[in-house]
Amino acid sequence: MLRRIISRSQHGESICLVDKGFNELLDVHDDNFSELFHVLSDIVKVSIAINREDFIPEDLLSEADIFVIGCPARARLSADDIETIAKYVREGGNLLVITDAGGDLAHQTNLNDLVAEFGIEIEYTTVRDTRNVGSAVSPVIENINVSHSVNKNVMRLVVGGGTTLSVVWPAVPLFSTGRNSVVEQLGLSANDSHPWKIVKVGENYPMGAATLHGQGKVVVIGDVDMFSNDGEYGITALDNGTFIKNVFAWFLAPVETSTVIDWLIARLSNLEEKYNAVSKKCDNISAENEKLKKILKEMHATQGKYAVVDNDTSEGAE
Question: Quick check: helix, strand or coil at residue 22?
Fold first, then answer.
């Protein structure tokens, strides 16, 4: 078995499982992510486990307090993997999903099949901004959702070329594009000489999002570079490190029973709305069916009112 605990901090009782079975770009073994390893093991004080299987082992996942999928590439989650992860979150697990510029299309994966479970969609985009750290695709983010606890003491973030997200309540944005931002979308055609097209301009297009789901929590981040050691846009740049520590601290904080009940009520309300919509469609179909029956009945009744005229003028007719 290639699954193994690679580090256990002296005080670490919680386990953070980092996936590497789907060619993820984030690798805590890599020197480029050594600062993240330090933050997790020495500051957040969690033990770090690695999954190198090409599937999500339910037994290993059930032991983890936090599960990190750090920007998979050229690999797809199966339907069983997605159901395993969704069940893990509903039952109290914490999930961090990280993607990067171009989303699933650029990285040839299907994270959207997973995050759709939580009201979030990863778009096929990248963000440019005149407020940056030397490159237009490394924007400084000041549009921060300060009402969320993961943004405590966070004023400015910087990403190294991220993607935007579409967020549906009860998921909420954590940080978003600014008024000078330009969002470009990756074209679907491989033969396109200009693959990136401007599709949005301005602020409030989310690049990070969070939600509660059952007894668990989910965070989706549209940039993997902010977790790296890069001095301009990595974990030590601006307030990136504070933000990342806050995310893991939020994961480890208990979920109040009242919050779970609120989630269940919202879930039931959503299901009721869907039921009502389906019921309305069924009523409409039934009404249309009755109209068709009436038309057919009238057609049958009309057929007997008309005599057939024989216009035969063949030889011998009088």
Answer: coil
